[in-house]
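FW: tagging you since you asked about this chain on Friday. Here's the raw sequence from the shared folder, copied in full. Didn't touch anything.
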Amino acid sequence: MYKTSKKILFINPPAPKKGVVIIRDLDRSGRTSMEKSIWPQTNLAYLAAIMKKEGYRVDIIDCIAEKMDWNKFERIIEKEGPDYILFNVISSTLNNDMRVAEIGKKNNAVVIAVGPHVTALPAESLREFSSLDFAILGEAEATLKELINVLEQGIPEERLKNINGIVFKTNDNQIITTPKRSLIENLDSLPIPLHELLPIHRYSLPFIGKHYTFVMTSRGCPYRCIFCRSPINWDRRVRSRSAESLIKELEHLKKLEIKNFFIHSDVFTINKDVVVELCKEIVKRGWKFRWFCNSRVDRIDKEMLDWMKKAGCQMINYGIESGSQKVLDRAKKEITIEQIKKAVYLTKKAGIKVWGYFIIGLPEETNETVNETIRLAKELPLDLVNFAVATPYPGTEFYELAKKNNWLVAQKWEDYDQNYSISVSYPDMPDRDIKRAVTKAYKKWYFRPIAVWKLLKGIRNFGDIKTLISTLFAHLKWIFF
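HL: got it, structure written out here
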């Protein structure tokens, strides 16, 4: 461990404009949150924990959760005077996010970017934004530790070329991208993230309310969905934490009086043994957590669902994507309509709510396949739905297909927002039809008495009412304006 007084600030940048909630994460595409979900910056808390163990002073500034504008952010940086700034970058707010680099350089900090955008387009990111010193590519913990420790030793830039997983500019303005770093084999070796540095009281999610955090149970997904950015950072190899490691983190959350969490993994249920062991241990200890998770419809069964319900699981978010088997197959989703129906009905029978995620505008989409999706969404007993716009983010197979086939209509990175922008257009499904289809889907699903009733049933307090009103307003703006 280094003995140093050097300070590192970990930043979730401000939103482009007041009142907008941006979702950013180190392994996801990022978007404007239509449902006003504020995501915990647990990945930054992991990085902060790593560097605290190395002896550095660390802090996290979550500008989205704190509703912090750029003027206030700049004043804080001037006051704090950090030696290093690491910040999270996503495609749809790229130019906005890179203001962190400008402000950091103006205040003599070394500025480091992380996230799927800079991982997918490393050289382009350094070339376009001169204030950026480094970008870390892929999984960041080991790379960040080595990079900052090397910089602290004052080693010549030749040594930087031996650090795997970074991109940087040399003194003569050459851009160097080093080889990819190997993934961390044992996730249990990571320290517990510093949840206590996060503004937990400001994080909110429909049906779970405020005061929650993310718990990462695994990294990676073995599936080949063409639109997913997870493989950019984690590859397609699943690494799971042990139930013992997860229990230690939950004990830490209890000490912090955090009673709600979201299991933030690509496929939490991919390792049944870990899921069941974890749930049994929660039940055995009598812990009363409320939690949500993501899952694939083909990686769930009755035994898991029963234990998850007993352990406090309130809702499962399934990536259903489409009601058309043709569209699902083209997107390499590797699920069937029957598997979707079975998983949703099993989940509801277990007493767990279901949030269905759909994507409109994937390859092979037509007006008829959109109608199939709407019919399926209405047929299933879903409690919430989200109809995202198909967006070909850099680094995905979808992006390469869109470029190759001249489907891209996006003019700037800000157009790559899966909740508000149309970035592709097909000969048989032009961009204007995709936009109409999303509007139609929201109308058909939410403008039903049963949908309204389910939303009202989810209200537990005044905060839920505020969240519901803002969510409805956001959806109505999309539908009518």
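FW: The longest strand covers residues 313-321.
HL: agreed, and The first helix runs from residue 42 to 53.
FW: great, closing this out.
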